[in-house]
Amino acid sequence: MKLDSPIFHDADEARKHLEAQRWPNGPICPHCGNAHADRITAMKGKAHRPGLYNCMECREQFTVTVGTVFERSKIALNKWLLATFLMSSSKKGMSAHQMHRMLGVTYKTAWFMCHRIREAMKEDVASSGPLGGEGKVIEADETYWGRREDGYVSPARKGKPYLKRKKPMKNAIFGLVERGGKTRTVHVQHATRDAVREVLVTTADRKSTLYTDESNLYPITGQEFAKHDTVKHSAKEYVRGDVHSNTIENVFSVFKRGMVGVYQHCGENTPLSTETSAKRSATSATKQNVLVTYSASLTLNALNETSGFCTAT
Ligand SMILES: [Zn+2]
C-alpha cells in the first residue's frame, strides 16, 4: 500500500476496496447475516448513495461501513482510509494535529477520527488468548517512564531505595513480546516479582520459552515456563545465540520515541493507557493498565492487510 493509491484519493475506490476486504465473496447483510447474492440487491437509483444494498430477507438497507468504526460518518471514506493508513504505518504514533494538517480536515474532526481508529486497533485481550505457546519464544523486560516524586522503597530493602537510574522514574512498564508475533505492555504499580509473575502467567502461555535479562524478577517465575534463559547485561552480554531480549527492548525504544516526540504527555488514564475492561477485572488488585496503543500499532498491519479497515462485528 502506497500513499498514491487511488483508495486514498477517491471515495468510490475507497468503498470498493473496503467491500473487497470485508466481503471477498459478495455482500453480507450486517442486520441478519444473509449472504445469498440473489437475496441482496444493489440500489442503483439516482436517489440512492453509491454502495447502498437492500437485503430481501430482513428488508433493511446497508452499506459496507455498517458495523465498522466508519459507520454514520460524513467524512469521505478515502479520508478515513488515509487516516487509518497513516496511523498504522507511523510506528511512533501520529497526533491529531498532524492528521488535521495532512488530511485537510478540522482538528476536531481529526481528533475524532484518531479516537475511532484507536478503538478499532484495540485488542480484545480476553478473546485473543495468551502470547506464545509450545516451541515459541517470549521475551520479557521492564522499563520506566516519567518522574516519580517520592521514591518507592520496597519494605524488603529496609529503607534503602533501589533506583533503576540516577533520576528516579515514575511508571514501571512491564512488556512481553512473542517473537514474530504480538506485544503486550502493562503498566504495573511497582515492578516486583509478584506483579511481574501475575502479568506473565496471565498473558503468556507457560509452554513457551522465556528469555529475559539477569534481573532477579524472573528466575522463580521462569521455572514455571518450558524453558527460561537469560543474558547478563551487567557483564556486557547482550546476545548468546538465540538468547536475547532485544526485541522487547526495541518495542520500548519505539514506545519512548513516541512518548517524547508525539504524545509528550500521558496520564495514567488517557487513551494512551486505556485499560481494557477484561484486563481491568483480571488485574484490578494491582491496578495495572494496558498501554494498548503500542501493542496495537504492531498488530495493526494485520488490520491493514487482512481484515480490512473494520472492527469485528
Ligand atoms: Zn438482512
- The H-and-E topology, N to C, reads as HEEEHHHHEEEHEHEHHEH
Number of helices: 10
Major sheet strand order: 8-7-4-5-6-9
Radius of gyration: 23 Å
Mean pLDDT level: 82
The structural class is alpha+beta
In CATH's first tier, which class of the domain at 128-154 and 165-278 applies? Alpha Beta
Strand fraction equals 15-25%
Approximate helicity band: 25-40%
Q: Can you walk through the features of this model?
A:
By secondary structure, this protein is an alpha+beta fold. Among the domains are: 6-23 and 64-121; 128-154 and 165-278, Nucleotidyltransferase, domain 5, CATH 3.30.420. Helix content is 34%, strand content 15%. It is built from ten helices and nine strands. Helix 7 links the parallel strand 7 and strand 8. Helix 1 crosses helix 2 (77-89). It is elongated, with a radius of gyration of 23 Å. The model is unreliable at 270-313 (pLDDT under 50). The structure holds zinc ion. Zinc ion is lined by residues 29, 31-32, 34, 55, 57-58, 60.
What is shown here, in short?
The protein is of the alpha+beta class and 313 residues long.
